[in-house]
Amino acid sequence: MHRKVILLLLVLLLMGGNLSAQTQQQRLEKHLYYLASDSLRGRAAGSPDSRKAAQYIENEYRQMGLQPFGTTYRHYFITRYSSIRGNASPLNPDSVDYYRQHDRTVYCNLVGVIEGNDPALKNEFIVIGGHYDHLGVRNGQVYNGADDNASGTASVTEVARQLLARRGELKRSVLICAFDAEEIGLYGSQALSNELKRLGMIGKVKMMMSIDMVGWLKQGKRLRLTGTGTLDDCAALIRQVADETALPVSTSRFESSPFTATDTEPFASKGVPTLAVTTGLKSPYHKPGDDPELIDYPGLSRVTDFLAALTLRMASDQQPMVASGHLAPKHRGTRKLFEVAPVIGYNNTNLHFHGSILQPFSRIGLTTGLSTQWNLCSHFGIQADALYEFAHAYYPDQTALFSSANTYRQQSVVVPVQFRALLGGTQAGFNLGVGGFYGYRFRSTLDADGTILQTYPSQHQYGVVWSFELRMTNLSFAFTSYYQLQDLFTPPSTSIIPPAKKQSFAFTVGFYF
Questions:
Q1: Nearest residue to 372 (alpha-carbon basis) of 331, 343, 346, 344
Q2: What is the CATH code for 338-511?
Q3: Global pTM?
Q4: What is the pLDDT of residues 110-149, one digit of tens each?
Q5: Architecture of the 24-326 domain
């Protein structure tokens, strides 16, 4: 009989563990099916539908016993379009109605806190958050945003529940955040980071994690955490927690894509170590089909367990959390003094014959090499490149107008040096340059149908150059125009073609380090 009782207790314990895991998964499904329902019409930032989502999140925080950060969970803010991403200003709750009555959109973050237990370390913070807004309704279609980012909002909510159950283990404090207005410019995370800076607390934030699109683990194969290079020993800690929770993960040192941004950015630009956490872009990103029935709920529950374990480890570790001092280039507030980029692209070359009525036909050539830039200040710099150029052009044979065209081919080393005006910020902008170039033509030939008609001697070349460049963080798209000032060649008396000057342009793509 005694043995049967023990066996029954073991069965109940196992069932209890399964029910507990199932309960979290059920809660995640409940969050997703409400936040990404058609009735919330895509949770457009600052809309009445977004306010319904905020009310739901606030109710969850209150029911689980999460304490508000400050006097209330709600942290209101407005935006000012005064820079590339604008700016976000926190509001006194008493002024919300005033701004709404004057046709100003008011946005709302939900922020809770779990206070640490160590007398000293409780003044340090781990911030974990995800944005709850999405795209709303466009052209009559609802963009429900289940993966983007109801999944992150739901996961952060359940991370808070797990941490509250183990609050006695926390030494550092944890801020639980649901950000508004991410989709229109990262304004929610900017507002909170500005508020923490105003309160003198931003230097106490030891890690900020943005949980954004984590609902497609099965399809994405692994959880991706980007930004480990901002905190000492971060990658090793992640691997250890991943092994303990049996979750496949991949890590990257820095965020690098110029085309994506998440709520890490306003914190990273203030020197806070950050991690961008996602299962990737496998879901119907920014499409009407991003619906809750497509979410991998078992995978989302596993991701939530991993995030809770990682946050708990960071918040409970007695050892100092030391920022590396390194930031992703896209998060730097100032330009690096010196940048270098490999570049590759194509050129198009025209030959201008003096006094000739016959015009050549340009052909596509190759340009590749290294580009360097010295940023003298925020808005001015000097660019110097070292490029290999293969250029060629067709032109008619003036002695036999109806014959096939001849081809002029040239290989050169070209060194353009330009004074540049840097327009825009460190993340995106336009650069205009003007200067001169030196080139050394080390091989040039004239041929017809593959038969070399003339070989020209090497030549030093020079001229003027101007350029237009689009910079997106590290990525460069540049258009450069060259005009040679002296004759391209001084033909001997037996030459088939007259003297000519070269006019060309090059389009190149580069990646700056």
A1: 343
A2: 2.40.160.20
A3: 0.72
A4: 999 999 999 999 999 999 999 999 999 999 999 999 999 9
A5: 3-Layer(aba) Sandwich (3.40)
